[in-house]
Amino acid sequence: MDITDGSPDLHGFRMPAEWEPHSQTWLGWPERPDNWRDNGLYGQRAFAKVASAISKFEPVTVCASASQWANARKQLPHDVRVVEMSMNDSWFRDTGPTFVVREGKSGSGKVEPNVAGIDWNFNSWGGIDDGCYIDWSHDLLVARKILSMERVPRFPQSIILEGGSIHVDGEGTCLTTEECLLNKNRNPHLTKEQIEDVLKTYLGVKKIIWLPRGLYGDDDTNGHVDNMCCFVKPGVVLLSWTDDESDPQYERAVEAFTILSKSTDAHGRKFEVIKLHVPGPLYMTDEEAAGFVQVGEAKPRLPGTRLAASYVNFYIVNGGIIAPQFGDPKWDEEAVRVLSRAFPDRQVVTIEGAREIVLGGGNIHCITQQQPADPMFTPLQNGNGV
C-alpha cells in the first residue's frame, strides 16, 4: 500500500540506526557474468557465506531470479528463505527499500503500521552515460516488490538516491558525501539545500554531515559513504584511514577527519573518530579480470584496477557484526580488533573471501538491507535485547 498524503516525518517515521533491532535482512543473488566473474561462481559463494553468517543472528531472505532460484536454494542454509525476484544486479542496499519506523502510532481505534519503506528512484549509479549498466528496469521494482511482499506501506520518492549513500545514527544525524549526492549524474536539477530537505523529511533527521569525498577508487558509486565512514553509536564514527601519505586515500581520509573533528551531531555532541585502516592497496589481477564476460552493457572490469576495499563496509545484525576480510594479514587482524573494541557487546564474525564482492563493486554492507523490527513489538535478541 502507498501512503501518498505527505512524507514519512509527517506520519512520525524516522530511519532507525542499523544497530536497532531487525526483523530480518534482505539480500539479492548475483549472477550477471559481466559483473561477477566465472558466471557468478565465486560471488555466489561469498554471498552464501554472508547470508549464512547473518542467519545465525536473525532471519534472512535472499531474492534470486527464476533461472537462479534452484542454485541459490542449493547453496544457502535451509533456514534462509529464498524467493524468486527479477533484478538487474544484486545490490540491495541501493535498490531495496530504506525502512523507517515510528513508535506507537495509532488512530481512530485501529492499529496502524509502525514500519514503512521508502522507495527511492534509481539510475544505475549515474544513468545511461555514467551508470554501471544501461538497463535497470528490474532494479526499479525491487523495493516495491519487497514492500508488497511484506505488506509494508510504501513512500515513493522521485529523487535519485541509493541506500549506500547515507548513514544515520537514529537520533537525527545523517552522514553522506558531496561526491555522490551532489554529482550531476544523480539530481542535477536539485540544489544541496533541496537534497537536504528531502533527507530531513524522509529520514526524519535534523542535521546532515557532508563529507566531500568517499573512498578512493569507489568510482562505481561515486563515493558512497558506507565505504568511507559510519556510525558506531551516536557521537562516534568509524573512518576509513591510511597512514601512508603517498596513498591517494590519505588526502581523503584527512579531509574527512578534519570535517568530523570540527562537527557536532544533531544533539550538539562532538564526534569521536575511530580510525579503521584500509587494506592493501589491492588491485584486480589478470586472472580475475579474465573471468568477466563483457557483453557491452556494464562497466568493464580491467586488470590493475584498484579495488575499493574498506573494512567500514561491514554490516550490523542483532547481536553481531558481519565484517569483511581481504586476505591482508596485517590489516584483516587489525580490523577485527578495532571492531571488537568499537562494539564490545556484539560478536564480530568475519567473512573470508570478501574480495569477491569487492570485485563486483561493493561489499557486505552494499549487498544487505535491514528490515527493522516494529518498535512496539520488539522481541529480545540473544536474550539481552541487542
UniProtKB/TrEMBL annotation:
InterPro entries: Agmatine_deiminase, Peptidyl-Arg-deiminase_porph. The keyword Hydrolase applies. It holds the Pfam family PAD_porph. Transmembrane segments: none annotated. The keyword Hydrolase applies. One of its GO terms (biological process) is putrescine biosynthetic process. It comes from the Eukaryota. SUPFAM superfamilies: Pentein. Its EC number is 3.5.3.12. GO terms for molecular function: agmatine deiminase activity; protein-arginine deiminase activity. Keywords: Hydrolase. PANTHER family: AGMATINE DEIMINASE (PTHR31377:SF2), AGMATINE DEIMINASE-RELATED (PTHR31377). This is Agmatine deiminase.
